[in-house]
């Protein structure tokens, strides 16, 4: 197996800004992302795109959108590279001060989501939606694009109707394809953000080693992990820790108040941890004391399955071939789940793209890839994950990787050859 070897000094550096070495260049990252979106927008025959999806807004504007009550923020990307951004009063005034690369920031009218729902008034909902559409039409007119086709990344029927009443030629499928194509291959700075979030996740794994003890609750240990992640500047948008019988199948409540006991497996899932918006998905399994033979055997099988997939990943490979590295229905333990089809085994064995959200292109999964393959490209970043039951418990292992011309680069560096045993 050939893996990508990093160049001298290539790799995770500090999280702070310094003047004595090049780190993540956020200005370059913003500009390169917007240019990729612009190039593909023009190729698709669009003169503008209205973006309501938080990851798409961040990709084009650099604004740290973390969800909200609905359409209380949205952005319009125009063919000359200008951006009109709408946001709530406090956010908009803050952005005018802190974001000099955005020169046209207006107050949003939330025509979708919780605000119109909470109004309890059909006429209020219509007012908000129409006002939002009027604001978009006004911006298009300001830039002379009111008669040109506009992409939109959220196909809400009510909003589309309101925009069409303003005479706007809206295109949803084209916009979705533009943003998917722009975001699927990562720039140098995006990859470094993902390498950084993997390093931060490893700081969290170290907290598991130092703080997991018999008698401590899952929630207490996860609290230690969360504090460490925040200390390194991460956004903790997900993740959890489970133990013992909660490790297989996945516990519906994720982290609970269960006490960890001797002989337990402990599973830490660092998913949706963000650094500059870029999200992790990174599993490791720990054992309380030396693992049993059954736990070791299960771990080795899960690890070998994962690395069988990694051996297949390269530019030009198709996802149907790569998916063959994942277990068949017997290996999926389909009988235990009483399942008949791979699509019923969602999230158990698959690979998924990583970026400004948890699931991006590509998705490699026996549930779809065999009949609907796509081609892998250099610069795609993904998480590859496998699992295996071990008696009444289970192990999981996952790597974050980059598709490279001369072999997969593994961003995750926590030891993977064996279960990490916690000596208490």
UniProtKB/TrEMBL annotation:
GO terms for molecular function: aminopeptidase activity. Residues 192-405 form the Peptidase M24 domain. CDD domains: APP_MetAP. Coiled coil: none annotated. The keyword rRNA processing does not apply. Keywords: Aminopeptidase, Hydrolase, Protease. Transmembrane segments: none annotated. Residues 33-167 form the Creatinase N-terminal domain. Pfam families: Creatinase_N, Peptidase_M24. This is Xaa-Pro aminopeptidase. It comes from Halogranum gelatinilyticum.
